[in-house]
Amino acid sequence: MVLRGELLDTFDYDMVDIFNEFEDAVHHKSPAKVATEFPSLEWLRNGNPPWMGHGDKLIGIFHPKTGQQIPIPDHVITIVSETLRQFVVICDDIGVHRDQIHFIATEATRIAKNSAQLLQAIKAETTIDVELLEKEEEGQIGTLGIASGFMAMKGLVADLGGGSIQISWIVSQRGYIRTSTQGSFSFPYGAAALTKKLEDLQKGKSKDGAKYSIQLFRERMVTNFRDAYSRLEIPDTLVEEAERDGGFRMYLSGGGFRGWGYLLLNLSQSHGNHYPISIINGYTAGRDQFEDTKTIEYAAKAAHEIFRVSDRRRSQVPAVAFLINALAEAIPLGIKEAHFCQGGVREGYLFRQLSSSIRKQAPLEVATRNFAPGSMRRLQELIESAIPNPSTDGIRRFPPDFGDHVIKAFANVMYVHMFMSKETASTTALYSTSTGILSSTHGVSHQDRSRLALMLQARYRGELPPREVEFRDALRSIISPEDVWWAQYLGRVGFLITCLYPGGKIDTSKPVVLFSSEWSWNLGKKKNKEGLILRITLQKVQEDPARFERVLRNNIKKVMKAGKKKNWAYLEKSWGMKVDVKVAEEGKIIDWVGNSGDIAVQFAPPQAAIPWAVIKSVMQVPVIEGEQMAALLATTEKAVSIISRGQVYESVYLKNAPADTLSKNLESALITIYKTALALLYESGNLFAETTTKRVLQSLLKPGHVSGGLEGMASRKMTCCVLCSRANLTQ
């Protein structure tokens, strides 16, 4: 556990009003009494201290007249030490070991005149040493803190404290983080420092004179920002994306920017607006909203109280607005989106402890694993099988922003609320990602929170009381209409799965159920509607006490209703498609698979022709064992998919690539996976060519043989993905 709390940060440049931060110590005391009890603080009584510049940062507490740095007040040291002692007591109560408690402090604490006194006091109260971060290390850890807030990020980053602003760029993908070799460029334009600077520029001047001085200062800021941009060595890929998308994505951290984010959030939840999520990390504002400084300044003045914005932050809003206007003008191509981050030094310190293999994991998926049902992987495969592969012309495809980590998280938690009443299950599931069990999960975008919430709500048949319909519609508004449709379709598929397996465990003694899906262009009464077909194959058995076929027949209409226009989201533009569900017992579908394969292989990559010849010959063998049929179909799908993906990897990463070690390793890995896929198909063909008795003996003597081969193929696939990721990072 790491503490980098507000009290420990008292002397960082972000803490400029001692009385606001330690109001308990001076609450209800008159100015005269304050002057008597705390003489060293009396000069702070009427507002923020006039900070003095030291290099490119404003750090520490300085005397207003002499400019000399003054010591940390004794009573503040006492408050900090006692607060940390209480923190340790809390850790003991919840079972946190002492070696897992870390106190860290930034540069401001390290350079304080009586820093040693503060550290000794903390050690005496808690028996724990404070780790002082060097300036360079603080910057690195701060960057990791920002990266911890998002699964992936590419764009510019800016950290706004009270004394300074740091600007750089970042690329974070699959646990690997790149940033500028120049580090970050720092300017003394922090929220508190800039407030003081703008006041000084106007003192003793006429209105026109003050306006002229501020304009000159603004031009100097713009020049400095543009110079920093040119020296940051921003990768060409980021610049090209900005040119294509209409500006850079900008990730904003630090108290100054978070205050601005909360003001934007306040506007989006008032005056008839109903933004559904009140979590700052992952909150995104478009260019027009972010740069509408006049509206935000007015809101800061007019509102009686603003969620998570103190009076001190409110007083700094004009300075932050001034900064944002200068920054927006200075950045070539402009700012497309502003993404607000909660992560800082504390989160970065924790994130640094993790290996890249752990960093790359999706927080939403990891956070839901404790809720996963017994057959989570099999259930997840069923859900994924309800999504067709991209069409050959590329027109139809599952939305790329709808990541598979959301689907995995859905498979993990789709049983969590099943014990609730019908009156509350859908509503509770709908709120679970914003105020419920998943609300505190760090590193999740608001869009992913919305997707998962809508999937869960649909999984419980989507029944909502009138009051909650508005919240559901607000969640829908922050993702695309296409994503809204897929969320409710997959939620309905989840409902069907839970009808088949109410306990979340797939019993091998029950009939095997397989899902597959495809695009169609001849649905509807007139056979002229586009959509998808969900095909459900049910193992034919003599006895079926679970009545699987009847369960399917009774509930497939719920899935088909996803294709009804009345169930599409009517936002600015509705989106949806027809859905048909076909149920067939095993054996009746073999001819259909063979015919479809003959057609599809004509459009597939050349590598797929040989595997399909093997697959088709295998499928001529009479098959009646459901489990073995499931293994064959899984083998077929995985093999063809992986071989096709290999062709893409060759085209993107090996064509015209230099003959370096990375390229050779990737080529070798692709050859290995091609061999593995073909060998597995060959073994599957031999297995299904055997008599029923031999197949049964084979399954008894070598259980999991085919699935083990699939796992090996998946492992080699992962090796290729990692090598391609590294190749991508080097380009």
What does this structure look like?
Mean pLDDT is 81; it is low at 3-29, 37-58, 588-593, 618-626, 692-697 and 699-704. The chain is an alpha/beta fold and 731 residues long. The protein has 31 helices and 13 strands. The strands form three sheets. Strands 4, 5, 6, 7, 8, 9 and 10 form a seven-stranded mixed sheet that branches. A three-stranded parallel sheet has the order 1-2-3. Strands 11-12-13 form a three-stranded mixed sheet, with helices on one face. Helix 8 packs across helix 15 (317-330), helix 24 packs antiparallel against helix 25 and helix 29 (661-689) runs antiparallel to helix 31 (705-730).
Q: Provide the β-strand percentage band.
A: 5-15%
User: Shape from CA axes?
Assistant: globular
Query: Do you know the CATH topology of the largest domain?
Result: Hypothetical protein af1432
Largest beta-sheet characterization: 7 strands, mixed
- How many separate domains? 4
CATH architecture annotation of the largest domain? Orthogonal Bundle
Name the poorly predicted regions: 3-29, 37-58, 588-593, 618-626, 692-697, 699-704
What is the mean predicted local confidence, pLDDT?
81
Structural class determined from secondary elements: alpha/beta
Query: What is the straight-line distance between the termini?
Result: 38 Å
CATH superfamily of the largest domain: Hypothetical protein af1432
Number of helices: 31
Counted beta strands: 13
Query: In CATH's first tier, which class of the largest domain applies?
Result: Mainly Alpha
- Please bin the fraction of helical residues: 40-55%
Radius of gyration: 30 Å
